[in-house]
Amino acid sequence: MESFYLFLFALALGFLAAIPVGGSQIEIAKRALQGHRRAAAAVTLGSISSDIIYGFIALFGLVPFLELPGVMVGLSLVGAFILWGLAYSTIRQSRRPQELRLKKSTLNVKRWAYLTGFFLSISNPTMILSWLYGVALAKQLGLASPFLSGQKMFFIAGGVLGLACYQQLLATFIQRMKHFIPDNINGKIYYWLGIALLLLSFLFIYNAQRLFFAKQQANGAWGKTAVGIREK
Predict the structure, then answer these.
(1) How far apart are alpha carbons 83 and 106 in whole angstroms?
(2) Closest C-alpha among 116, 165, 141 to residue 17
């Protein structure tokens, strides 16, 4: 029964964690707005695939991988470049909104939609903090004591299901609303979605810069300590 409660807790956390606007949510909204429901689902599938990877890294003691020099900085920079490309593409598409509903539209290619969701999420290593905070909260509530391997699997499953539920509810809502949105308004929405992607890219750059200087300071402090030890 404890595992079931842990699953429900992780489900709620995953749902809430997915609410803040991110690259995946914007890409889902773009596809749902044009009626490409399966492509929107593919973005969700890509997003939860990377979320599962980070869940295993956080819960099964693989966090040191992200402490390797440059790993988190590199991933953040990759995320920024991906967002730049998506922002450029979205702003260009906003000039031809009538073409976005076509079946041949790149938005309707499920393979690219999956890769978009996957790389947008995997290039954001701060996602691992959500898992770690969730585990800490579960332990405080007595839902993960002890936190056995089977319970960790339940926690990961609940978290990714919560994320998927929110994203698909978002896709369903937007798809229902698209019938009331004319093409000229659709183009304006696309333009501002592109701007949102561009702004998100600067958050990735800020994160990369912050991590880089934190690493430099840590290395400097370690170097001074080592010098002091040798002098003694």
Answers:
(1) 16
(2) 165
Q: How far apart are CA 95 and CA 170, in angstroms?
A: 24
Residues whose CB falls within 8 Å of the CB of residue 82, separated by 6 or more in sequence, listed in order:
23, 119, 120, 123
Question: For residue 163, what is the enclosing H or E element?
Answer: helix 149-177
Distance CA 28, CA 43 (A): 6
Domain ranges of the chain: 2-231
- Rounded to whole angstroms, the Cα distance separating 35 from 31 reads 6
pLDDT, tens digit, 9 for 90 and up, residues 88-142:
888 887 777 666 665 556 667 788 899 999 988 888 777 777 887 888 888 788 8
Look up residue 228 and give its two tokens.
Answer: 């002091």
Phi, psi of 166 (to 5 degrees): -65, -45
Report the alpha-carbon angle 26-32-33, nearest 5.
85
- 209 pLDDT tier (thresholds 50, 70, 90): confident
Coil, strand or helix: which one is 86? helix
CA atoms within 13 A on the CB side of 187: 10
**Radius of gyration over alpha carbons of the chain, in Å?**
20
Nearest-CA neighbor of 197 among 111, 83, 63, 89?
83
The span from the CA of 232 to the CA of 227, in Å, is 9
